[in-house]
Amino acid sequence: VQMIKGKRILITGAGGSIGFELLKQCLNFQPAELICVDIVEEKIHNIDQFCDKINLKTVVKTVLASVNSENELDKVFMENRPQIVFHAAAFKHVPIQEVHPWNAVTTNIGGTLNIIKLSDKYKVSKFVLVSTDKAVNPVNVMGATKRVAEKIVISFNAESITTFMAVRFGNVLGSSGSAIPTFQKQINNGGPITITHPEMTRYFMSIQEASQLILQC
Prior knowledge:
Number of helices: 8
Distance between the termini: 12 Å
Strand order of the largest sheet: 3-2-1-4-5-6
């Protein structure tokens, strides 16, 4: 709680399923400011609407910007001087990234590097990358890009005063890209459910559990 209370916190991908839950969890610990960055206009609008409905002691700023634009991000860091960064912005749909691998490389690796360099430049206290269990011995583009992002994150610990960390999730129930919403749609349409293999094992956690894991890290 003390790690977050009174601090300026920046969340990338703040309108996504993990980022938005992180925002809500952080509000419980009364940070001084929450800077919420997302590239999707509708997501920014949703955050603004959510914050308008509740009585906030925290200043919440929304920023429509891409993690791929270092110039845009530099302005955000310079104006807000975040002390803690949660980097949740990423492409995460596995099949789509197989078709468009260079988009995944640009955002998942390049976008992460931009945020890392700025966190180092502006002397952020702690940086946490939201990663995935698909980064373990990766067999797809999404896992490979996240593994590279992890390696870059950890490598900066050797030369920066910022503490860099990464948290891996399994399947997060109900999050964008999760298997469960796909299964639900297939059931609602009368089936069948597409299962990769009869002996396939999946490990699930809730969005709330995933967000709490990030904060504990």
